[in-house]
């Protein structure tokens, strides 16, 4: 069979990435992530008409970390609607993902739902009135539903490792609690937060889970509406402006797509109306985003002419 242009481009990118020696640096502030082999790379593209193109280690599960924040935001908006925006803003922070500096000036309201402080506030919304165990289960089941795969799991070693080393996140959460921004006990919120960051998924699963964002809020394979068209558009807007923290401008300049990164080295990128793309390479750049992941996405959008601009 003659490979499609998409298959050929994805294979080409996987081959080029495999050959590169600049891999970035694996996150080590969560000790369990520091043990991951940086010589891994994966890419999966799932198009709206159901075509799947994969390359590299696309069936190896990795820690999705902050990519989970797209899905917790989606869940929180479903539960509380626009009241979420009383707790968290929608502006790029221009600061690293774990920064505390803006919180004091802005009365404990985080700049956006993707920096750690913002995601902790979003987790508080999901937790409301539930036990941590129930909230964790709800988030995990949402991921399994979106990816149509019950095999998605939480890596408890990663969650425990982050809990043991989570001094910075405890500082952020306690600071927000002091401003009255969080309702639930800090340890409950962080328990849920550490566990949703520790969800493990493959690129194939992650790209599948992202399809509703590329398709006006609807899962294309079933016609099931996950969010309204307006909400999907807005989540994409926040991914574009805030998805890579203080690297968001550079990412938009080079790749030109809404996307969300995680310190596990994963990136979910959305090509509205066309495709959902997941890439993974564990080595990070200086802004905490996957080094080869970003380069691979830049190649993909350049070679296929995919952009929202
Ligand atoms: O809270 C943390 O530091 C991690 N669980 C998530 C941070 C993250 O993924 C930032 N992304 N690039």
UniProtKB/TrEMBL annotation:
Any Pfam family the entry gives: Glutaminase
Coiled-coil segments: none
Positions annotated to bind substrate: 66, 116, 162, 169, 193, 245, 263
Record-listed E.C. numbers: 3.5.1.2
Record's keyword terms, sorted: Acetylation, Hydrolase
GO molecular function, one term: glutaminase activity
Magnesium as UniProt keyword: no
UniProt entry tagged with the keyword Hydrolase: yes
Family: Belongs to the glutaminase family.
PANTHER family: GLUTAMINASE
HAMAP family, per database record: Glutaminase
Protein name: Glutaminase
Biological source species: Fulvimarina uroteuthidis
Gene: glsA
């Amino acid at each position: 069979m003659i490979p499609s242009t998409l298959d050929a481009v994805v294979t080409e990118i996987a081959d080029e990435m495999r050959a590169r020696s600049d891999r970035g640096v694996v996150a080590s502030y969560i000790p369990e992530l520091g043990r991951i082999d940086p010589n891994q790379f994966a890419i999966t593209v799932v198009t709206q008409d159901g075509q799947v193109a994969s390359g590299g280690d696309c069936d190896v599960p990795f820690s999705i970390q902050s990519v989970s924040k797209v899905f917790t935001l989606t869940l929180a908006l479903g539960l509380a609607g626009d009241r979420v925006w009383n707790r968290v803003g929608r502006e790029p922070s221009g600061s690293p993902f774990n920064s505390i500096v803006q919180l004091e000036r802005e009365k404990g309201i985080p700049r956006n739902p993707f920096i750690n402080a913002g995601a902790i506030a979003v987790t508080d919304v999901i937790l409301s009135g539930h036990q941590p165990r129930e909230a964790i289960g709800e988030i995990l089941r949402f991921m399994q539903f979106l990816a149509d795969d019950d095999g998605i799991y939480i890596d408890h070693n990663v969650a425990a490792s982050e809990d043991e080393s989570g001094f910075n996140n405890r500082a952020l959460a306690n600071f927000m609690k002091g401003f009255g921004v969080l309702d639930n006990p800090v340890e409950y919120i962080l328990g849920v937060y550490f566990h949703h960051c520790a969800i493990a998924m493959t690129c194939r699963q992650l790209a599948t889970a992202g399809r509703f964002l590329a398709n006006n809020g609807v899962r294309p394979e079933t016609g099931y509406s996950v969010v309204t068209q307006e909400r999907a558009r807005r989540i994409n807007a926040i991914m574009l402006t805030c998805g890579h923290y203080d690297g968001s401008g550079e990412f938009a300049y080079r790749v030109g797509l809404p996307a969300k990164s995680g310190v596990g080295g994963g990136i979910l990128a959305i090509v509205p109306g066309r495709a959902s793309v997941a890439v993974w390479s564990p080595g990070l750049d200086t802004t905490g985003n996957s080094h080869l992941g970003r380069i691979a996405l830049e190649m993909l959008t350049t070679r296929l002419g995919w952009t929202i601009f």
